[in-house]
Amino acid sequence: MTPDGRYFVVRGRLWRRANPALDEATRARLTRELMAARRAKQQAMRQGDEAARGAARQRVDAAKHALGERGPVWWNDGAPDLNRRMARNTPYAEWFSGLGLSD
Predict the structure, then answer these.
(1) Which of 28, 34, 39, 40 could connect to 63 by a Cys-Cys bridge, CB 3.0–4.6 Å?
(2) How crowded is residue 82: how many other Cβ atoms within 10 Å of its Cβ?
(3) pLDDT, tens digit, for every residue of 5-37?
(4) What is the spatial distance between Cα 103 and Cα 100, in angstroms, rounded to a whole number?
């Protein structure tokens, strides 16, 4: 997780974290919905059902927006959204290089 808690890093790429201002019950409910939507998408893909896949993708997107992982940023200091960018190409580059991980 980045020092400011906004992102976590996977394979050198930044991914926005859920809004820490969400209460635990809300976060848990939205996370359950996200996981259910992902399972529905996977099942639709296995069955070749494009309509169901599209509906499940919309559910995933809605859950991610509600969690704060997509859409407008949840912080209010004017910092840009660096979601999905390579950490080495962001203001987090020095911090990331100090971790000693290869990306």
Answers:
(1) 34
(2) 20
(3) 999 999 999 999 999 999 999 999 999 999 999
(4) 10
Angle at the Cα of 92 from the Cα atoms of 87 and 93, rounded to 5 degrees = 65
Whole-angstrom distance, CA of residue 12 vs CA of residue 67: 22
Place of tokens 């980045």: 2
Containing H/E element for 16?
strand 13-16
Between CA 12 and CA 103 the distance in angstroms is 4
Residue entry with tokens 């809004």: 19
Instruction: For the chain, give the longest Cα–Cα distance.
Output: 46
Length of the chain: 103
